[in-house]
Specification:
The protein has 406 residues and is mainly β. The radius of gyration is 21 Å and the shape is globular. It is 2% helix and 40% strand. The chain is built from two helices and 29 strands. The two termini are 27 Å apart.
Length: 406
């Protein structure tokens, strides 16, 4: 497998050998080759790459910019790695344990993930909670999802629909399985300060993502919930009301009754791909000078737009950056739109693309692209028809990663 990167590289988070006088990589560049590769975390100033059974940190660290290995639990036991503009902050294990990132400045050879132990009097310990999801918004706000049954087998049973657009929380949750809590900062969570908000829902979450000022969740019933700042309602994909306020996890009405397979968010934009392989996009910042045509117009009645690419081809994957979107079609082609002024669209130029442009077959690979691995700042495309979960992939398959930093 081969790793290709492009985009903003001022902290050498993409390519350590890049000329420091040129911070942008405008075309995909091969930077790593390994039998198995995955990108576990993509941040403004650093990235964490899984190569075989090791984790490699690239980009900014207090001790320097050289790539270095991260010690800690086996990568297979790590569910997610997270951070903010300052760099990597920690990792969340599959069993719900929280690990903090230590850069090795106290005499260690390199960085490591150390298990964090909450105080005995904390709500995490007192209620025997495990953290299932953790996301950090660009404004520093932190959202966690905990489940009282998560250290055992998750309770079975039917889950209610959330498509009625009512707030899905209870002030007295005797039967609620999942709790969503918000904190003003990551340090507030570690210090076990009172949460700024608590919401209880019946349906477990598949994923929880953060954008500039809001959070987006995909539930086990394949519905999309959004919640966050009322100052930027367009990022929620819905109009806040008295019964469905901006700060409460509520379903997006436009997507009601549509089973969603995947979500992606970044900056001020959100996107979802349905199980029927349709692409939906919402968001954008009020007053912005340039705007992708794929985004809903301010004059639209709906806050979400069904997007047609190349006449309405099926969409398999979507990735959202801080101001741009990339989509992988069922035909193995990659299309992009939005901000490319740091080279993150891999066109070889620095410019904004209002309309979709094709980046797939013929531009950086002669083969058919069949999968994209998405994140807030990158998209990975595999150009050979192997399993969809990127496990047990043969050695010579190439992964192409387009990184988004704006």
């Amino acid at each position: 497998m081969e790793l290709y990167m492009c985009g903003f590289n001022a902290h050498h988070q993409l390519d350590h050998d890049q000329d420091h006088h040129n911070d942008d990589i405008t075309q995909l560049r091969k930077v790593l080759r390994s039998p198995r590769l995955d990108v576990r975390c993509a941040l403004w100033s650093s990235t964490v790459i899984q190569s075989d059974g090791t984790l490699l940190h690239q980009g900014y660290r207090p001790l320097g910019l050289s790539p270095t290995l991260i010690d800690g639990p086996p990568p297979r036991n790590i569910k997610s790695i997270f951070g903010d503009t300052s760099g990597v902050l920690g990792a969340l294990a599959i069993d719900g344990s929280l690990y903090l990132y230590h850069d090795g400045s106290q005499g260690r050879v390199g960085p490591e993930f150390r298990k964090h132990r909450f105080p005995e009097e904390s709500f995490i310990v007192q209620q025997s909670l495990a953290i299932e999801h953790l996301a950090i918004a660009d404004n520093g706000e932190v959202c966690i999802c905990t489940n009282r049954a998560s250290r055992k087998r998750r309770l079975s049973g039917n889950t209610p629909s959330m498509s009625d657009n009512t707030p899905h929380f209870l002030f007295s949750p005797p039967t609620a399985k999942v709790e969503i809590q918000l904190f003003s900062s990551f340090q507030s969570l570690l210090s076990c300060e009172p949460a700024t908000a608590n919401h209880f829902i019946q349906t477990p979450l598949i994923s929880l993502l953060a954008s500039a000022t809001s959070f987006t969740a995909l539930t086990a019933t394949r519905e999309v919930l959004t919640f966050g700042s009322a100052l930027h309602p367009q990022c929620l994909g819905r109009d806040p009301t008295v019964t469905s306020s901006a700060d409460s996890p509520c379903a997006i009405p436009f997507l009601g009754g549509i089973p969603i397979g995947k979500i992606a968010v970044g900056g001020w934009i959100g996107a979802a791909v349905s199980e029927d392989q349709d692409l939906y996009i919402w968001g954008g910042r009020a007053g912005e000078e340039r705007r992708m045509h794929a985004l809903p117009k301010h004059s639209d009645d709906e806050a979400v737009r069904l997007v047609d690419i190349d006449g309405g081809v099926d969409i398999l994957e979507v990735g959202v950056g801080s101001g741009h979107v990339i989509a992988l079609t069922a035909e193995g082609e990659v299309w992009a739109a939005g901000d490319g002024e740091c080279g993150q669209l891999a066109t070889g130029e620095k410019r904004f693309e209002e309309d979709w442009i094709k980046l797939g077959r013929g531009r950086y690979t002669e083969n058919e692209c069949i999968r994209a691995m998405t994140g807030n700042q990158f998209v990975a495309v595999i150009d050979s028809a192997i399993c969809s979960n990127c496990i047990n992939i043969q050695e010579q398959i190439r992964i192409y990663l387009t990184w988004y930093f704006a």
